[in-house]
Amino acid sequence: MIVSACLSIGYFLTPVLLNKMAEGLIREDKLVKADVIVALGGDPLCNREKKAAELFHQGWANNVVVSGIKYAWGFHTGEAAQAFVMGQGVPGEKVSIIRETLNTRAEAKVLDALMRERGWRSAIIVTSAFHSRRALYTVEKTSRDLTFHSSPVKTGYPEWEPDAWWSRRGDVYLTVREFISWANTLAGGWQ
Fold first, then answer.
1. Does domain 26-158 have CATH number 3.40.50.620?
2. What is the pTM of this model?
3. pLDDT one-digit tens code per residue, 33-44
4. CA atoms of 99 and 33, how far apart (whole Å)
5. Can you give the residue ranges of every domain in the chain?
6. Helix, strand, or coil here: 166?
7. Beta strand segments in 69-189, E
8. pLDDT tens digits, residue range 98-117?
């Protein structure tokens, strides 16, 4: 009797716990004016870059940074992101690229150097919602004396959705990968 009661409770609580775990990946701060808006790389749909351009036009910062890597055949995702942001009406002289950043930790290091070079003291970090807490943890750990705020892309199709994430193959992949990436980050893993 007790075993079946525990199993029943576990069965009904599992979706609630899974949702809460996924919601814990999200960090969204109250926006304050900053020196720069940073769209982290890795978004093939350019939703991060689109949100960065929107925040720029709303006056949250006067500069935008995009990130990317160069593929063997010469295509550079950072240049594509820059062109997209400029296509959204952000002046070219206001858009910078951080290059050859294969992961969030590398982006944080290159961003730290760029911010110090330009005299920027604060940034709004734009990334996917599932990545927002780890991204902020990483940049804040890298640049302890600078100020960062998170403004993730909204959840929901075609982006990741934390509610019932285990029922959608793409969201399962992103969520499980993010939990593994957290473990790697906390262990000081892949540089």
1. yes
2. 0.92
3. 999 999 999 888
4. 25
5. 26-158
6. helix
7. 95-99, 122-126, 147-150
8. 988 889 999 999 999 999 99
